[in-house]
Amino acid sequence: MTMMEKIREYLQLSDEVVDDGEAPRVEEFLRKGKSFYEDFSLRGIRVNRVEPGFISCYFKDRDGNLVNGAIANLVDEVGGALVHVEGLPIFVSVDMSIAVLSKAKLGEELEITSRLLGERGGYKGTIVVVRNKMTGEIIAEGRHSMFGRQASKL
Known about the structure:
Blueprint: H1 3-11, H2 27-30, H3 36-41, E1 46-51, E2 54-60, H4 68-83, E3 92-100, E4 109-120, E5 123-132, E6 138-147
Antiparallel strand pairs: 1-2, 2-4, 3-6, 4-5, 5-6
Family: Belongs to the thioesterase PaaI family.
Domain Thioesterase: 64-116
Main location: cytoplasm
């Protein structure tokens, strides 16, 4: 069974978009034994789709304007989840660059997508886009560079 099949089976993802709030939480994707920080900071985020080099999540902003620190956390956590390799330590952030383009308003449903930009050795780069799910307006865009150990080829 491939890694993507394991993730899909673990999360029990379907090919349909789930809008009823019953999709798996993104922290379930990361690993068992998660920290309080991960549980608290990722609460309410739902996984929509997982493919090699791509993750799509969503959540509803209930508190009003999404602060810049929360956006930076989304770039860090969702970008990190994309490159996480089961059985290896998490990747270490090397650089993040975030552009906040507009504000999320109270009650808006937001879509967070993360794509793998490239990799060389243990170095990987992702782009994370936070947008209004209804209008498509981009709220923020972040590039996240990480370094980690590669899986052994032995």
